[in-house]
Amino acid sequence: MCMALGGRAAENLTFDRITTGAQNDLEKVTKMAYAQIKFFGMNRAIGPLAFSEENDQNPYMEKPYSKALGNVIDREARRMITEAYEKTEQILRENAEKLRTLAEALLDKETPNYDQVVELIGPPAYDDAKRKIEPVEFEDSLKKLAGAAGSSAGGEEQK
């Protein structure tokens, strides 16, 4: 989640505003949060439960949980996203010089590759050999997650 929120947080810290370009990242993070809570049972407040996708084809199908639990799900999703965003901003503040260096490089070259980023700000804190997912794989996994989560992230949030 922090990785997906990085651009949004960087805009906020650097320009003291957030553009619409960060909206797609926020949609992804919202879907991630709801998937963790509703599909994967990865939330202490909800517990080890999994709810199948609501069927958009059948408007008469009810959600398999109460409105009260739906409100808890929404609250937990907001909490998860808020905590991830705050952590992301903290990481960026702690690495403000690296953020500035990378931002300046992005003005020159819009899409630097991994090696160019390492040259600019140094290697990641973790072992480079452990880097198992490529950016394209990450994007594909988010698309699959979005397909699984569908419109369920809306729920009470959009009302």
TrEMBL record:
Molecular function GO labels: ATP binding; metal ion binding; metallopeptidase activity
PANTHER family: ATP-DEPENDENT PROTEASE, PARAPLEGIN
Protein name in UniProt: Peptidase M41 domain-containing protein
Pfam families noted in UniProt: Peptidase_M41 (PF01434)
InterPro entries per record: ATP-dep_Zn_Metalloprotease (IPR050928), Peptidase_M41 (IPR000642), Peptidase_M41-like (IPR037219)
Domain Peptidase M41: 1-119
Superkingdom as given in the UniProt entry: Eukaryota
Gene3D superfamilies registered for this protein in UniProt: Peptidase M41
Signal peptide: none
Keywords: ATP-binding, Hydrolase, Metal-binding, Metalloprotease, Nucleotide-binding, Protease, Zinc
Coiled coil: none
Native organism: Culex pipiens pipiens
Cofactor: Zn(2+)
